[in-house]
From TrEMBL, chain A:
Source species: Sulfitobacter brevis
Record has Signal as a keyword: yes
Protein name: Peptide/nickel transport system substrate-binding protein
Key word Lipid metabolism present: no
Compartment(s): Periplasm
From TrEMBL, chain B:
Cell compartment(s), UniProt: Cell membrane
Family: Belongs to the binding-protein-dependent transport system permease family.
GO annotation (BP), single: protein transport
Chief place of localization: membrane
TM annotation in the entry: 39-61, 104-130, 151-174, 223-248, 269-290
Organism superkingdom: Bacteria
Membrane topology: Multi-pass membrane protein
Annotated PROSITE patterns: ABC_TM1
Name of the protein in its database record: Peptide/nickel transport system permease protein
SUPFAM superfamilies in alphabetical order: MetI-like (SSF161098)
Amino acid sequence: MSYITKQIAAAFMASAIGLASVPVQAQTPPDTLIQAWQIDDVISLDPAEVFEFTASEVLGNSYQPLVGYDVKDVSDIFGVIAESWEVSEDGKTFTFTIKPGLQFASGNPITAADPVFSLQRAVKLDKSPAFILTQFGLNAENVDQMVRQTGDMTMELEMDKAYAPTLLLYCLTATVGFVVDKELVMSHEADGDFGYEWLKTNYAGSGAFTIRDWRANEVIVLERNENFSGDASPMARAIYRHIPEGSTQRLLLEKGDIDIARNLGAEEIIALADNADIKIEDGIKGSIYYMGLNQKNENLMKPEVREAMKYLVDYATIADTIMKGKVKVHQAFLPEGFLGALNDNPYALNVEKAKELLAAADLPDGFTVTMDTRNTPEITAMAEAIQQTMADAGIKMELIPGDGQQTLTKYRARNHDIYIGRWGPDYQDPHTNADTFARNPDNGDDAASKPLAWRNAWDIPEMTKQADAAVLEKDAKARADMYIALQQEHQKVSPFVIMFQEIEVLGIRKDVNGFIIGPSFNDNSFRQVTKSE
Amino acid sequence: MSAGVSRRDWLLSEQPASRRQAKLGQAYRTWVQLRRNKLAMVGLGIVLVLVLAAIFADVIAPYDPLSGGDLRTARLLPPSWAHLMGTDDQARDIFSRIVHGSRLTLMVVAMVAVIATPIGLAVGTTAGYFGGWVDTVLMRITDIFLAFPRLILALAFVAALGPGIENAIIAIAITSWPPYARLARAETLTIRNADYIDAIRLQGAGSGRIIWGHVVPLCMSSVIVRVTLDMAGIILTAAGLGFLGLGAQPPQPEWGAMIASGRRFIIDFWWVATMPGIAIFVVSLGFNLLGDGLRDVLDPKAAQ
C-alpha cells in the first residue's frame, strides 16, 4: 500500500469513527437513576451517627423506622415496622407491636429484638443525633430497662415524663430511630462497639434500596432490595455522583448524563426553566435562614436595636433575586408544615422605622458590628445584600468570612457579634425548633445544653417555661395554640432575625417521574421513580 | 555646566563633572535604551495606567464599588454605556470594582516587593560574602523554602494565619524571597574577591559596611529585574488566594475573589468572571513585558 493510500485509508477510518460517534447521545441506563449532588458532608452511614443532609436521604431510602408520616400531611402518622402502638394510662410508656413477616435485606426476619437493639445502640453509642432519644430521659445506664423487649413481636419504651405522644413518634421517624439488623450488625462487632466501625461504611437495613458502595467525595451506589416488604422499586440502581458545582450539574443535566441535579443555583434554575427536556420540581423544606444577634454585644442587647435589625433586611427582594426559587420569606421559628407554624411575616424593609428605633436606643448614627459569614455563595450573597440595607440606617456591618467549621466554632463559643446561618429541624415535631430558639435553661458559660438561644446569650427563663409546658400538652390543638403564642412573642423580642424558609429545587430530565420531595431530608424518596420511554 | 550645552548633552557627557551627573547620565542611557524596546514601553504604559487607576480610583469609578444598585433591576446587567463592564450578582458596577481593585493589586505587589526584596538581598549577600557555615545554613533554609511550590506554601501560610489581604501579603512575601537570595548570593560570590573589595577591607571597613555599601548596590540591578519579572507571578498568586477565598474578603473588590464569585454565572453571564480575568491578564502581561525590557538594559551579560 502506497503512502498516499495509507493516508486516505486513515482519513476514512477517522471520519467513519467521527460519523459513528455523532448520533450516540449520552443517556443514563433505563433502570438506573443518576443524581448529581454535593455529597462531601457524608461522614458515616450508621443510623446512630448520621446527622447530615445527604446521608439522611440515603438512609431514608435504605432503612425503615418504626413509624412514619405522610409527607403531604405530617400529622398523619402510621406504622412502618410497627403494626400498632399504645400509650399507657400515665402517658409514660409506649407499647409497640411489630408487623409480622418482615425481613431485612440480609434475609434475617425482623422481630422486636431489632428495634430494641437499634434504640439501645443509638443511646449507648451517644453520637451527635443521640439527644433526639436521650431527651426522653434515656441514657447509657438505664436504656436497657427503659427500652425493653416484652415478646417476640412486642416491645416497650418508657420515658421519664408524659411528653406529648406525637413528640416521641416524630422522634422515632428521625434517622437515629431507624431499625438495624441486630444479627448482622452484631456479627461484625469488635471490642464492644456494637458494630460501629463496620456499619460506618456498610449496610444493615430493610428499606427499598440497599447501600452497595460509598466512596467519599465520589459516589454512593444503591441497589434494589429484593427482600423489601413493600412494592419493589422500578429502578434497579440509584447512584449519587459527587458534583459540587451547580453549573457543572446543569451542563450534565442538559447533556443527559444525569437524571436529576440537586444543587442548582437561582440562575441555573431560571436558565433551565426554558429547556423542554428538563422540568423543575420543588418542595418546601424545614430549614430556615436566620441571623443570630449575640446579646453579649452591648449594642445588640438593646431591644430597639434588635427590632431595628428586623426592619433592615430586604426580605422580598432577596427572595425574588439572589435566592429566587430557593427560599420563601418566613419569619417565625417553626417552618411552614409543622404543627403550630406561624406564617405571619410582619417585617419588611423599612429604613425610616429602623432609624427611629436606633435613635430611641441612643444610636442615631448607627454603630459598627461584625457578622460571621460562611463562605458558601448563597450565604455570602445574602450577607452582602443585608450589609447594604444595614448601611442605609448607618449600621456598618463587616463580614468575616470563614468555612463552616470556623464560623460554627466561633458561634458555639459565643464569640460572634452576628451570625448568619441556616437551621434544619432534627425531627418533625415543633419541639425541635422551640427547644433551640426559645429555650435556654442555663445561660452560664459552662451550661450543659447549648441551644441557639444560649449561643446568642439570650437569657429567657419565662419563655423556657412556656416551651417546656408545650412539650407536655397532649391535646394537639391546644399545643399548636401554645406554639403560636410563643412564636408571636418570639418574633417581637428575640435576637433572631428569622428570614427565609428553604425550598428544595431539583432539575429533572422530563422522562423521570415520581421523585418525592418531603419536608425533611430523610423524606426525599426515589422509591417510586420511573423512567418513561 | 555651561548655558550652551543642552540637558541631553549634559546627561550623555563622557566626562561627568560630578557623581550626580554620572548617576543621572547612567539612568538616562538606560531609559533611552529601554525606550527603543516597543514591547517594554507597552508594559510600562500598562503599569502606569494601573498606578493612575489606583491613585484616582475615586474619580474614575462611576459607581460605589462596595454597595450596589437595586437588586431587582440592576442585577447581572450585560456591558452597556451605563455599565461599561456590566454588573454582578449584587448589582454592583464591575468596572468600578475593577478600578478600585487595582488599589488592592498594586498594594499587594508593592508590599511584597518591599518585604521580600530586602530579606532576599540580606540573606543572599550575607551568605555569599561570609561563605563557610553561614552560607551553608542560610542556603539550606533557602532550599527548604524552594522545595515547596510557591502557591502551595502560600496556601499553607494563609491557612495558618487566617484569611485576609494582609495575611495574603505576608504569605506571598515569605514565599517569594528565596529566589532573590539565590540570585544575590551568586552575584556576591563573583565580586567578594574583587580587588576593590579587598581594598575597602584593608582600609578597615567592617563586614556590614562592605555588604551594604559595596556588595548590595552591585546586586541590585539583577534583583530588580527579577522582582519585576516576578510581579506577574505575585499578582497571580494573590488572585489565586482570593479565588480560593483566602485572600481579600468580600465585599472588597479583589480581582481573584471577583472571578470566584462570578464563576457561578459563567454560562449565562460571562462578563461577571471574564472582566476581572481580563484585568489580571493585562496587568500580568504588562509587568512581564516591562521586566523583559528591564532585563535587556540592566543585565550587562544579556546586553552583550
